[in-house]
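Review form for a predicted model. The reviewer records the input and the model, then writes brief findings.
Reviewer: anonymous (R2)
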Amino acid sequence: MRARRVVLDQQLFRRSAPLRLIVVHELFHFAWPRLSNQSRRAFELLLKTELHRGARGELGESSAAKKRDFGARQSRRAWRDYVCESFCDTAAWLYSGLAEHPDFTLRSRWRNRRRLWFESYFDRVRPC
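Model under review:
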């Protein structure tokens, strides 16, 4: 990300669904550090609420792995990594155009809350 470059394996171009998920996910890695601290904390609070209410599942392979890692390590760094990956996977779920995927394991109740967060945040963002 620091080099502002994304490298995609050529094999992905033969499979449009994974390609769309990965491209959107990676693009949102550029968006995450540009969010305000208040916005990042609001998304973090959304995830804390899910965890405290027993939500299971995630919206992508990378956030599911980071969620497991956080559960095992309980460190601040593991939590921050999970929040970022969850943000990017949520964006990929929302904006990739895929209605279903085996990695979309978060229940619709929680998906809807995340959709509302994204809609409320990105509705307020205006282009320069």
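Findings: Residues 95 and 111 are 13 Å apart (CA to CA).
Further findings: The chain has five helices and no strands.
Recommendation: see findings above.
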